[in-house]
Structure formats: structure tokens, C-alpha cells
Amino acid sequence: MKPKIQITKGDSTKIEVDAIVNAANSSLLGGGGVDGVIHKVGGKQILEECILIRNRQGGCKTGNAVYTTAGNLPSKYIIHTVGPIWNGDVEKCTQALSNCYKNSLALAESLGAKSISFPNISTGVYRFPKELAAKIALEITTQWESSTLEKIIFVCFDDENEQIYQKLINQNS
Ligand code: APR
Q1: Residue 40 Cβ contacting ligand 1 at under 6 Å
Q2: 112 pocket-lining for ligand 1 (C-beta < 6 Å)
């Protein structure tokens, strides 16, 4: 089935889904932006599990995804994915960002998640152009066939991203 896609303006730490996706960095040790608030609100359990992953496999490479439990957050899992830092190389950055969405969706499915939320990965500190990032995110997710996922929620923290996603969704409907 094709999961239902929703756009919402808000804060990832307040959206109740089975898996909340975090825009992490390769160290998995937290940071600012949505990463910072997920660790802050979710609590130290999340960082402890991230450190276990680091000890096992090093950090997380750009485009890849790992998971932890969700601590105090309203979900079963946090999926930590590392977006590309925008450097102007459209092809490479597009490929890496696409992998973030694909690997996060595949990991959520392997966990049996029925619902997942994404922040606008790489469009903050990593400076990925918002319109291109939204096109990539929607291209992957609208074509995704799933045996378990019923709902994909894009959580837009700023008005610009929300307007971009709504415009693109309306264009495709
Ligand atoms: N809920 C949802 N989205 C949020 C929240 C939140 N609470 N806070 C910020 N955002 C949005 C930003 O507005 C942006 O649109 O998340 C999107 C991604 O921005 P960042 O969090 O800065 O992530 P990214 O651009 O992928 O950069 C990752 O930033 O925070 C550090 O540790 C992180 O080094 C990593 C880098």
C-alpha cells in the first residue's frame, strides 16, 4: 500500500507516531536544531543508546539511518539519519538526501512501524535548499510502497518549509 502523506507545522517531539526521524550528525552525540530538542526532551536514554551504537559501529555515515528507543518522546523509536551538508554538488547531495529518506523508511518498516514523522532533513544547519529538499523528500515518499507503513508525516518547523510542501503536494494532487 502507499502510506498516507500529511504535512503539519510543528515540533517533532510533539507528534505521536511509531517512529520519529531525527536529523542527526555523524557523531550521533546530539547537536542543535531538531537533534538538540529530541535529545533534550527525549532524555539521556537516547544518548546512551547512541553511544552504544558508536561503540559498535562508529558513528552514522551520511545517508544512513540507525534507531534507538524514544525515551520520554511520544513514539516507540527514534530513527537517527544524517543528512548531507549542502556543498553545491546537486547530484551527490540529492543522492545522499534520498538515501536518508529511503533508509529511514526501510528501517521503520523493519521495526514494524505503522507511522513515521520526518523533519525537513538538512534544511537547517546543513543549508540544503528547501525547495529541492522538499522535492526529493516527496519524490521518495510518494512512490514508497509499504507492507506496514500507513502514515508519513512531514513536520515543518518553519513557515517557509510548510508553504513549500503544501505547494508541492497541491501541484501533485
Ligand atoms: N521539530 C521539527 N523540526 C525542527 C525542530 C523541531 N523541534 N527544530 C528545528 N527543526 C527543523 C529546522 O527548522 C529545519 O527545517 O529541522 C530542519 C532541519 O534542521 P536542523 O535541525 O538544523 O538539521 P540539519 O539541517 O539536518 O543539520 C543537522 O544540525 O542540529 C545539528 O546535530 C545536528 O549536526 C547536525 C546538524
Answers
A1: no
A2: no
**Domain, as residue range, for 95:** 4-172
Minimal-distance CA residue to ligand 1 atom 12? 124
Mean pLDDT by 10 residues, the chain (173 residues): 96 98 98 97 98 97 98 97 98 98 98 98 98 98 95 98 97 83
Q: Which pLDDT does position 67 carry in this prediction?
A: 98
Is 159 one of the catalytic residues?
A: no
Q: Of these residues, 11, 18, 35, 159, which one is catalytic?
A: 35
Pocket test for ligand 1, best of 125, 132, 136, 156 (most atoms within 8 A of CB): 125
Q: Is the C-beta atom of 122 inside 6 A of ligand 1? A: yes
Look at strands 77-82 and 151-156 and give their pairing.
unpaired
pLDDT above 70: percentage of residues in the chain: 100
Give the orientation angle of helix 33-42 with respect to helix 44-57, to 10 degrees: 120
If one counts the domains in the chain, the total is 1
Q: Is the pTM of this model over 0.90?
A: yes
What is d(CA 168, CA 166) in angstroms, rounded to the nearest whole number? Answer: 6
Q: For residue 78, what is the domain's CATH number? A: 3.40.220.10
Q: What is the DSSP string of 86-109?
A: P-S-HHHHHHHHHHHHHHHHHHHH
